[in-house]
Every structure is written in structure tokens, then in C-alpha cells.
């Protein structure tokens, strides 16, 4: 095994691509908070490819995190000079590349002093985040900031010792304002409709809780571009570690990914940016159309299939797509109930995009687990699917399949599969979801009373088919319900 490091890059197998640029000459320009697999396979890769072309050498990435568990990732990355082995898995073959666009990782500490100081450095011109859909402290009832969350309350009261990424960004921006260093761009890279707008709302709302003048300065000077990000990137486990070892590389945190990437970005950067379009990204004024297509068909499609798959004991997304009942149900929901609420984008119709997603989900070499995709449904269903139900009801179109999707998720949250095995907690709201799902066996309205359903729970056009599907699932089984709908 070759331990991955700067010193061993020349020893890697010839088939493994590696940085051709002088990593020692790179200068930091981006702090990225939430350094998971997706970031390293997506945004960091685009930057690495620019660097391979002799570009963007002053835009290197500094990794960061705000939770104690981020410290373990920092130590692993530091031990291999912040290099990552990316392994592309495709039915037609695989390839590997070591990327080097990340050059440092901020120490993880209570109060986030080191992170604040790094973001206050004038050399940092972009602060980017991948903190998941549920990481923005969104109040399910009003879609604004959850000002009562303990971490938000703490950050408003103790702005110099914040717990959250957003509190740390505000503290850094205060220093930059006071020092004359100027603003930075806040760049969300999460799967949220209008992710830049969501980030801006979170930052401004939290800042205004403690310092209205600072909030006004941020609003007038910082920018928060919307973007659409896309690449299927499984979690790293024993199989992924073994793939890296099979290449002869000792990488503590390798990343596998599919042979597809897409990044569409609003060109709204207050302090400059890399030329990501030269590495394949798209700058567009129409990000909303791209993100709607992706969030509704891909991310929504994931939620369509994972609850039935989990209830039926299927462990991977590709195995789910091989199941005839789930595959037929997936296509009908997508084509008849989601597609009407998606616009075409340049070069791609919604129908063509559904076919593309079918192929991507069906890739057996991407070992993406149903459990990973089902995680945090309490953020993903309200973000990806419930808006479609609202639009369909307003338009008078069918929501039978979408009601079945919600009933399947309810059944999943009872915590027991049809084979009798237990579903381990898989949501920040798991206890509340499980209690509601259990009560819904006798009273389907108990599930629809969850706060994110809002007025849908009282709308008979949705509540009645939901209750009918849920009763069928409990009485006849998941497969019977799926087959009834698909027929």
C-alpha cells in the first residue's frame, strides 16, 4: 500500500491521475464548511480540474466544520495532506483520480474561534457550505429561521462564541466590516430550492437578532448565489476503502461517485470567483429551472422509492430499481404527477431527464444505500415533494401517487420492516415521526398533523387518498399497494 501524501504522489499507479500543479504554491481563497464526500467529489473536483489547467491557484480550499465529529475527518485529511482519491464507478468501467484543491482544514474548537479568524482573512473571498437540507434551521411552519432553536438562541446571545456555521460567518463578517476587509460571497451547495436565498435568509435573520446594523451591512454588501448541484456520491465504508486499497492506495477517506456531474450557478459573486465554467460548470440566470428539474425528479424521486424499498428490505438504490413493482411505481409517479410541474432546460426535457435518472439510479456499481437516502425525510419530503402536492392540488391534477409516497414514508417510520426487522432511528425527528406513524395505523390523521404538512392535513383531496393507501399498505402489504397504483 502507498500511503497517500504529497511525497508519494509520484509513486501512485500510472493509471491513477494526480495533481500536476505545485500544491505548495497554492493560496487559499475558499473556506468550505461541511467537508463531506459530496463536496470532495463535486465542487472540489471542479476546482482541481481548473488547477490542472494552470488556473485558479489562488482559490484553494480550506476545509472546516462546526461539530465535534468533524475533528475525526480533519485528522484523517491532515494525515494525507488533504488529498482525496476519487473513484468513478460506471457499468462500463472505473477510473481513479487524486485531487489536491484542498490545502488546509481549520481546527475544530468550541466557540469556533479559528474558523472565524480564517473567514475574516481578506484572502478568503468565498465561504461555501454543504450542511444538508436540514442544516439551515428552517421553521417548518413559516419557512423562516427557527429562532427558538437552542443553537440559534445561543448564537444570538453569544455572537463571539457561536455554535453554528451561520453564527461563525456573521462573526467573521463583523470583523471584515470593522477592519475594512470587505464582504465575502456565501455559497450554499446544498439541495435546497433557492439555496442561496435560504442561506441569505438564515444569515440575515440570525444577524438581525443581535445586531441590526451588521445585518444591514451584510445584506447590502454580501452576495448569496443560487446553485444547482448534482452527483450521486455514496458514503464511505468498508467497500470504498477496499476499492482504494485495490488500487494500491492507502486513503483513509476515499470517495466513490458516478460518471455524472452537473453544477449550475448564478454569476453573483461580490469578491470574485474561479472560472468554474472552464471545468464544465454552467453559469446561468435560470438556475431555478435547473434546480426545480433536479430537486423534483432526482431528489424527489429518491424519496419516492426509498421508503417502499426500506419497508421491503432492499438495501441499495440499484436493487430498488431492479424491483419490478417499485420501478413501475417510480415511473408512473414521475411521469404523470411530477413531470407536469417541471420546465425543460436547455438541452433537456423533463421526460429525458427522468430517463437519465432511471439509468443513474440503476447503476449497480454505485453502492448507495436506501438508508442513507432515506435519512432526514422530515427535511426532504417538505423540500422535494410537498410543494408539488400543493401545486397539483391548485392545478386540479392527480396526487394519487404522491399520496402513496407519503403513506409509504409513514409506514417506514413505524420502525419495523415487513420482514420483522427493526429500522434504526434515521431522522432528527425520529421519535416524533415514529409516534405519529404508530398512531396513524388507527388514525391516519395523526401523521398528517405533523407540522410540515400544514393545511394539507385538512384537505380531503389529499387526506383521503393518503388514508386509503396507508390502510392498504398495513392490510395487504407494500407491494400490493404499489402494484395497485401502477396498474
Descriptive overview:
This protein has 487 residues and is of the alpha/beta class. The chain folds into two domains: 2-285, 3-Layer(aba) Sandwich (Rossmann fold), CATH 3.40.50; 288-486, N-(1-d-carboxylethyl)-l-norvaline Dehydrogenase, domain 2. The chain contains 21 helices and 13 strands. It has helices spanning 37-41, 43-52, 70-79, 113-120, 150-157, 165-179, 195-210, 212-221, 238-246, 287-311, 317-322, 324-338, 350-361, 370-374, 377-384, 386-395, 400-412, 430-439, 445-448, 460-476, 478-486, and strands spanning 2-3, 28-33, 60-64, 84-90, 93-99, 102-105, 126-129, 185-188, 227-230, 249-250, 255-257, 262-265, 282-283. The protein has a five-stranded parallel β-sheet, with helices on both faces. A hairpin with a 2-residue loop joins strand 4 and strand 5. Helix 12 (324-338) packs across helix 21 (478-486) and helix 17 (400-412) crosses helix 20 (460-476). The protein is globular. The N and C termini lie far apart (53 Å).
Amino acid at each position: 500500500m502507498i500511503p497517500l501524501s504529497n511525497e508519494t504522489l509520484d509513486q501512485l499507479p500510472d493509471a491513477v491521475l494526480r495533481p500536476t500543479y505545485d500544491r505548495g504554491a497554492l493560496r487559499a481563497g475558499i473556506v468550505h464548511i461541511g467537508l463531506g464526500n459530496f463536496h470532495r467529489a463535486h465542487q472540489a473536483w471542479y476546482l482541481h480540474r481548473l488547477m490542472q489547467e494552470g488556473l485558479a491557484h489562488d482559490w484553494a480550499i480550506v476545509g472546516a466544520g462546526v461539530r465535534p465529529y468533524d475533528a475525526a475527518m480533519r485528522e484523517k485529511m491532515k494525515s494525507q495532506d488533504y488529498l482525496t482519491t476519487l473513484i468513478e464507478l460506471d457499468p462500463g468501467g472505473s477510473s481513479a483520480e487524486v485531487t489536491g484543491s484542498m490545502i488546509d482544514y481549520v481546527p475544530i474548537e468550541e466557540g469556533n474561534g479559528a474558523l472565524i479568524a480564517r473567514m475574516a482573512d481578506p484572502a478568503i473571498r468565498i465561504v461555501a457550505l454543504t450542511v444538508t437540507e436540514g442544516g439551515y434551521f428552517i421553521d417548518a411552519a413559516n419557512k423562516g429561521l427557527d429562532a427558538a432553536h437552542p443553537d440559534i438562541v445561543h448564537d444570538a446571545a453569544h455572537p463571539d462564541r457561536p455554535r453554528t456555521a451561520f453564527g461563525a460567518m456573521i462573526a467573521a463578517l463583523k470583523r471584515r466590516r470593522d477592519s475594512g476587509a470587505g464582504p465575502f460571497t456565501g455559497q450554499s451547495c446544498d439541495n435546497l430550492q433557492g439555496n442561496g436565498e435560504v442561506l441569505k435568509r438564515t444569515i440575515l435573520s440570525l444577524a438581525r437578532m443581535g445586531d441590526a446594523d451588521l445585518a444591514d451591512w451584510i445584506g447590502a454588501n454580501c452576495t448569496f448565489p443560487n446553485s444547482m448541484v448534482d452527483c450521486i456520491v455514496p458514503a464511505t465504508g468498508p467497500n470504498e476503502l477496499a476499492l482504494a486499497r485495490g488500487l494500491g492506495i492507502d486513503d483513509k477517506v476515499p470517495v466513490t461517485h458516478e460518471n455524472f456531474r452537473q453544477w449550475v450557478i448564478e454569476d453573483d459573486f461580490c469578491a470574485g470567483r474561479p472560472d468554474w465554467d472552464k471545468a464544465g460548470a454552467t453559469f446561468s440566470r435560470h438556475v431555478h429551472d435547473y434546480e426545480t428539474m433536479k430537486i423534483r425528479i432526482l431528489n424527489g424521486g429518491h424519496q419516492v422509492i426509498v421508503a417502499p424499498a426500506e419497508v421491503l428490505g432492499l438495501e441499495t438504490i440499484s436493487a430498488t430499481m431492479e424491483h419490478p413493482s417499485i420501478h413501475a411505481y417510480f415511473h408512473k409517479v414521475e411521469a404523470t404527477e411530477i413531470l407536469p410541474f417541471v420546465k425543460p432546460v436547455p438541452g433537456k426535457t423533463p421526460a429525458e431527464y427522468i430517463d437519465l435518472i432511471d439509468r443513474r439510479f440503476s447503476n449497480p456499481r454505485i453502492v448507495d444505500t436506501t438508508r442513507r437516502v432515506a435519512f432526514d425525510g422530515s427535511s426532504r419530503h417538505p423540500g422535494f415533494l410537498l410543494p408539488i402536492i400543493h401545486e397539483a392540488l391548485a392545478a386540479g391534477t392527480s396526487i394519487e401517487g404522491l399520496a402513496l409516497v407519503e403513506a409509504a414514508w409513514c409506514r417506514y417510520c413505524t420502525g419495523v420492516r415487513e420482514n420483522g426487522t427493526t429500522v434504526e432511528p434515521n431522522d432528527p425527528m425520529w421519535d416524533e415521526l415514529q409516534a405519529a406513524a404508530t398512531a396513524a395505523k388507527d388514525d391516519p390523521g395523526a401523521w398528517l398533523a405533523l407540522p410540515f404538512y400544514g393545511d394539507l392535513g385538512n384537505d380531503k383531496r389529499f387526506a383521503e387518498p393518503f388514508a386509503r393507501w396507508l390502510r392498504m399498505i398495513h392490510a395487504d402489504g407494500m407491494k400490493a399497494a404499489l402494484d395497485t397504483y401502477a396498474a
